[in-house]
Amino acid sequence: MNGRLTGIDISQFESDKGVAQALDSETGETVILKAAMITKMAHLKTAKEEAETLRQLDHQHVVRFVAFIDKHIPKWALGSMTFLVMEHCPGGSLIDWIARMNASGRKTTADEATLIAAQLVSALSYCHEKNIVHLDIKPGNVFVMEDNIEVKLGDFGNSLTIQSAIESIKTGATRRAIGYTPLYAAPEIYDNIAVKKSPRLDVWGWAMVIQEILTLEHPFGRISGRAANFTETRNISYHKQLSILLLELNIQRHEVEGSTRTSILEILDETDVFGEFEKILRKCMSADRSHRPMNALELKKEELFVAFIYRLENGQRPCDIVPPPFEDLKDAQIRKLKKELSELRMKSAATVEKQKTEILDLKKAYDELASSKKLDNQKGQNNYWLNATIQILLHQHCFRESLNQLKKYGHFKCRKRECVYCQIQNLLKIKNQSISSDDFQKALMLVNQSFVDRKIRDPIEAFDTIMKVLCIHLTDTDTDEKKNCEKLHCLAHQKFYHHIVEKRECCKCYHVKYHQESELMKSVSAIDVINLPPYTSFTTLLSRKGPEIDCDESLPCLGKRKLIKRLENDAETIVISIGWVDKRTPHDDIRIFINNITCRIKLSQLYDEVPKDCEFFLDGIVCFSVMHYRMHYAAYIYDTNTMKWVFLDDNNEKIISQSWINVMNHMTKNNQQPCMLLYSKFEKFRKLDLTNAPKEISLI
User: Whole-structure pTM over 0.70, yes or no?
Assistant: First the structure.
């Protein structure tokens, strides 16, 4: 057909509603052919209108237009066919998605629902911005991609532009509402001609689809003991009667006691998220259309979707959804156990025994560590700043594992009760939930004069000091004398510091200068993050190199030296400190800042050359807020055991959610300004080489 499309199964057109798959020989991709039988010239016009509408829509969540084939169809050739060629969506429609969910016995999670809703809002707002109204939003017209969570809006056969709708009203040549799907149409569509051109109809359809995703059943459910189907409405003579029936069903859906429609909150957990959905859906499905959002552009501003849509439209993954989405929890556990068993069988008996011993030792160490180990914070002490630093460190897996490795070894310059290294190790060993903050602060004062008389209350300074002191205790080396510590058992430099080589090469004389340094944390201004241009990644602020400098090797050379940064060591963490000008930043600026934070960073985004490119995930945040004219610090950590974010506010511990979006909302709601971000690898950590580690404790 047309020389471009091959492998077409003609029988599919009869069995699959005029749709068949084909192979596009130009691109090598599988595409979808939508056939239209031309029995009237109006049919040809409708097919061309759909193709033209799809052609002008270029959006990541709208099915992509490929071609339109209507070659040599004369006016008299009634009975010919046209073909609309579109992108293939392997996951089928949302009808298939819902069927797979029900078959697997799964419930829709908060992230799945919000992500699908945000994608559809993004697509619809794009259409409405171009004055295009879809007019037939339903699960059968939303198509699912291969990953079972990316969706695209398709089938624009009933769509209209607002301008063409206005012109048709003026001329009287209006289209009847036969293209609507009654089960998903708004009650007012048959009341008058002008109403059915409104984007509010798409808002209603969107709400119907999202509620069906949340509850995995049609929103009308079962009413007064019978299914809410519309088969009987096919014989209704007047569209007005159908409109009344739809309106009555909508009222019953919310008010009649006999209705057994499943409530979102009855089916699903995490009531904060789904409570927000319930409010939005009630507004979007109001029987009075004036109470609904005017179009999808208003929906796009809903706080529940803002962060998701922002990340989607900037090419980022808004959240992490564990695949495969249609796997039963029990099946997933069996699959995981089978995989572990298969891996164990491939290893020798000696290796297995060694691995079991290591796992038991590690488990024992984790059991000894309570989930909220901290420093004492008696009334008036105000140790929130130091507590947040200690808590976020002890929840870092690489930090805990390394301390557990070192517990049988000694250290240098021990000060007994006033030794920072001993105090941190004690938090792992003792069964109590806390240790004395006075001893810990005295230990810090001996190595950093800024802590004397408690003049400084900054978690970033505390973090920096703890790392420097750990290096001194483990290597007997003053980091002021030698910045780049190369000892393989140094916890601080092996796990947290980045060993960087800066290479400046002249573009004319090719003279090269090298500079070596160790960097514990990267700094960025909050103002720069807030003022990031659209579609600009947060990591661009971390990789800025400054202007090129003049070559000073020889007077005749007028070249410029270009900076190339190379990472020498296999870093396991990325620490970022945030500088805020105003301690009482406006709420909107905090929201923009948090939305601009990325959850994933690749080493190659920070350095020109890396030994091994890998991905780091955000798993720790220290933030502050102003309470009663003083700074109050708290921490958020991602617990990899429960796979949930936890909020640590001194003595209080609160599980937030699995979803990062809920953490963002929690921070924004409480006006908390992040001042330190920690990113870690989620893969297996590299163990310290303890060959040259001190065997005994040396007192100072």
Answer: no
